[in-house]
Specification:
- This protein is mainly alpha-helical.
- Helices cover about 80% and strands about 0% of the residues.
- The protein has 18 helices and no strands.
- About 50% of the residues are buried.
- The mean pLDDT is about 80.
Amino acid sequence: MVLNYIWIAFFLLAAVCAIVQGAMGNTGVFADIIGSTFDNAKTAFEISLGLTGVLSLWMGIMKIGEKGGMVNILSKALSPVFTRLFPDIPKGHPATGHIFMNIAANMLGLDNAATPLGLKAMESMQELNTQKDTATNPMIMFLVLNTSGLTIIPVSIMVYRAQMGAAQPTDVFVPILLATFAATLAGIIVTSLYQRINLLQPVLLITLGGLCALVAGVIWGFSQMDKETMDTVSTLSANIILFSIILAFIISGMTKRINVYEAFIEGAKDGFTTAVRVIPYLVAILVAIGVFRASGGMDLLIQGINWAVESCGGNTDFVASLPTALMKPLSGSGARGMMVDTMTTYGADSFAGRLACIFQGSTDTTFYILAVYFGSVGIRHTRHAVTCGLLADLAGILAAIAIAYFFFG
């Protein structure tokens, strides 16, 4: 229901902006809007088509892991934490292992692996759902963890900075890590309040404290490296971990004496079906976002924020970077384009350029994730998922601004 209202709001706001611009003589805005609808519909199909191969690969691997027992091993190992954070999922259920695999892939910046693993987790949780069109508490907690975008190794952002001529492309690494960690913690806290989960339980306190210590250790370790070493170590670590997971799953299947090849084919077929199923949801959300952008609504919003900050006597240095922050919940590629545009306009080493990079790495594409993950299992009633996801995004944005002023202001 919430997505329904948001979807309608995009079109209504776009219509108002287009009428205003038309009245001011910019009649080309209507052609831009129509062109955007077709372009984004095509983009949605191309994204789904591109997902087909990756989905088939990873769902095939996950099926081997299920039959070989690796997913159950992960579920049992994480049971003490996940039974408290996801209390509605039975102990030892395969969904726990799928959730962990998705979160681990996201933390390593392995987007191509994270999406199919996340879709598999959604399918596992849907098996426990008694109301098939309504999101469950575990689904919402899982999606909020995804939308908060916790990433330890933001390789792609550092590559973009290098391409744009940054003197130290890795100088945003620590700020991004801090901002995305703040968004994730906020998401967990907000969702737990909605779902009445007690975060003061010893196991959760120890786990969150351990994660804080891990983040601090990663920050310290990478801060001791130069750019070349940091890029090499982060990329190599991600690739080794990913390949190790594939090998572990295959070896587990061989140990259990299952037909590994047949198990892979069985899972891969599900990947193709899932990729086709998400096409309508992607078309709907990407077209709505594209229409709003083409109407000039985003530009008007930024101008309004700039005026409001100036009127209050505040520093407006951060406003130039806001298009990336506001676009990120809507479109990953759109936010990436905004980030590059900001660095091109103001310079990669400018305050605005660095802050745009921190925005890009601090959260994930909330509406895209909701559309794809909920759409893959036919969820129509999202309950508090959008609210919690956007609050996590807001925490990430505010943390990014504060951290950018601390490091670069």
